[in-house]
Specification:
Layout (H helix, E strand, L loop, with lengths): L9 E4 L2 E5 L5 H11 L6 E8 L13 E7 L9 E8 L12 E6 L15 E4 L20 E4 L12 E7 L21 E7 L9 E4 L3 H18 L3 H5 L3 E6 L12
Parallel strand pairs: 2-3, 3-4, 4-5, 5-6, 6-7, 7-8, 8-9, 9-10
Antiparallel strand pairs: 1-2, 10-12, 11-12
Length: 258
């Protein structure tokens, strides 16, 4: 790609590339990201993002990308190492089949966030939509982690097969429970930790007490969450967490003919 086409929109100083994405077609913007990735630019700032899809998709390496605005669907899909920081909300499919890296969202995220996520971490300050964590799985020793600061809509952790999903409910009032229905439906692997009470569980999951390993893992993830968003770890952890695990590793085994 000839970056001279973006000469009026790109400014590079001290290894940081600043891009004005206003009105830029999503394919051109992603081509520009790939051009800079691995070519001596360690950090990018993308300003005036408004719905461009697939930002960070299939990128490798350790580039840090700050996005200002609202990126479109499939943010960081198939991503393999970079760190995306979103200064705003994200739409649907964030982290779709993500392998490695980190996504930090200073706002909300939409439906199917973390869909088939296989590695890396996603931290979301506020709420998320429906079917978040669907088909999350561990892959070749990787353990994906997704932490939500607010609450979620229905079918949280649906068909979850691996990894760690944490929902903190920091915006819930005292005594208010998470209203998501069918939490963990079809879940057959992985672990969910929900701060506070859940009103409706899928029949494939059960609630168990936390063990010391769980508490260590939670502290590590909540510490990292707080480092991004300025919350207090001890205040968050000074509250009851429910651990949700699958009842069976073959919840639909009897539905198939052999």
């Amino acid at each position: 790609m000839d970056i001279r086409l973006f000469s009026s929109r790109v400014k590079v100083e001290n290894g940081v590339a600043k891009v004005n994405a206003e009105g830029v077609y999503y394919r051109d913007l992603n081509a520009l990201l790939r051009t800079f990735n691995g070519n001596g630019v360690k950090k990018m700032e993308i300003h005036n993002v408004y719905g461009q899809r697939y930002l960070g998709t299939d990128l490798e390496g350790n580039m840090e990308i700050d996005v200002y605005g609202t990126p479109g669907n499939d943010l960081g899909a198939l991503m393999n190492g970079p760190r995306l920081v979103i200064h705003g909300n994200a739409q649907d499919g964030c982290g779709n089949t993500m392998n490695e890296g980190q996504i930090v969202i200073h706002g909300r995220a939409g439906d199917i966030t973390g869909y088939s996520m296989r590695g890396g971490k996603i931290f979301i300050r506020d709420d998320v939509g429906y079917r978040v964590g669907i088909h999350m799985k561990g892959y070749r020793g990787k353990r994906p982690c997704l932490v939500v600061g607010g609450t979620a809509q229905d079918f949280l952790g649906e068909y979850m097969a691996g990894g760690v999903l944490v929902v903190l409910g920091l915006n819930l009032k005292a005594g208010e429970c998470h209203r998501a229905k069918f939490v963990g439906t079809g879940m057959h692997g992985g672990t969910m930790y929900v701060r506070g009470e859940v009103s409706h569980l899928g029949r494939e999951v059960e609630v168990v007490d936390l063990e010391e390993d769980d508490r260590r893992l939670l502290r590590s993830l909540v510490d990292e969450f707080c480092s991004h968003f300025g919350f207090n770890t001890n205040k968050i952890l000074d509250h009851r967490f429910n651990k949700l695990i699958p009842v069976s590793y073959r919840p639909y085994g009897r539905l198939y003919a052999y």
